[in-house]
Design brief:
Layout: E1 5-11, E2 17-23, H1 66-76, E3 84-91, E4 95-101, H2 102-115, H3 126-130, H4 138-155, H5 163-191, H6 196-221
Antiparallel strand pairs: 1-2, 1-3, 3-4
Amino acid sequence: MKKIFYKYKFDFNDGEHKEFLVDFDSRSLKSKLPDGSQYPDWSQLEFNQCSHCPLTSDDYLYCPLAVNLVPIIYWSKDFKSYDEVEVTIISTEREVRAHTSLQHAISSLLGLLMSSSACPKMKFLRPLARFHLPLATHEETIFRTVSSTLLRNYLRDKDNKTIEAALADLKNQYWELQEVNQFIAKRIRVAIKKDAAVNAIVLLDALSKIVSYSIDDSLQQIQYLFNDETDVA
């Protein structure tokens, strides 16, 4: 099985350069943890632990999502959210480049790190992390999340779920994701001086709210993609 990875490269106008490599376990689709056995206090499980977290400190000293974010949080803590950056994302299949704000670029990387973490509330997003779409738009996110949900239910036909039930599950998972985002933001505020990483989480949270509150309306907006009639040029 081929190696699965995503490399984010950040280049600033002043010449500063930074790279983050996200390696995946090809079977679990979980990203590999950063090196080191010691993590900061704000990454401990019971520090601002999500109210709906099923994990206990008997089994986990650290939050499996928070530890995934430690390297990028400490790197970005002195940057401002509106700093401009040239970001390049390299994977096995392709390379993507964009000139954008740092918070937008970090939000994309944080989304990848969170969805590929060992957090049980992120498990439904791991297939999307495997086929990560850097800097995705709202429309792209709706298309991918709903498609992934329906495909998962199709492959688990024995569950015999209706489309309505599958979409209801997806909405509920995104509502829980909003809770995770809020508590992760509280952790990050302890670790940083400036706002780039926190605002990146805020962007992710806003996107999760849009998805959960507007799945039905958004599906109608992209229904044209599946119309049987096609325009003749």
